[in-house]
TrEMBL record:
It comes from the Eukaryota. Pfam families: LRR_14 (PF23598). Residues 52-144 form the Disease resistance R13L4/SHOC-2-like LRR domain. It comes from Chrysophaeum taylorii. Keywords: Repeat. This is Disease resistance R13L4/SHOC-2-like LRR domain-containing protein. Gene3D superfamilies: Ribonuclease Inhibitor.
Amino acid sequence: MWVDDDDPFEWKGVKAEGGRVTSISIIPKDLLDYDFFREHPPDSRFEWSLRLEALPPEIGQLTALTSLNLIWCSQFTTLPSEIGQLTELTSLNLSRCIQFTTLPSEIGQLTTLTKLVLAYLYCEHLMVLPPEIGDLTALTSLDLKDCRRG
């Protein structure tokens, strides 16, 4: 996934402050933008986002991360338990990740999380929310739009 000679702070969808990653947005609609697509052909490093099935455990090392957007990553299935180490995270968006199956219990460690979006998952694979969701005391927005079991 990562290319050794690349500077991740220059990647589309990655924002940083003070040399620390604060936001990651993996949104395939950016891949479909004509200008972006012309600059980064399908065999580029960005193609993997369409096949993203899970985040690596190393995501927990991005302790300054405040926003994580994985919109339309249709093969994305789970979050690693290390997600609980992202104690500055305020926004987590997994909308339209239709293969998503599991929110780990460590989700409850995200005490600064104010927005959790699980919209348009259709909940064919995500059957229950963990009880630790109740530990998200800062949560002001939980979007479960079209999360229905059929």
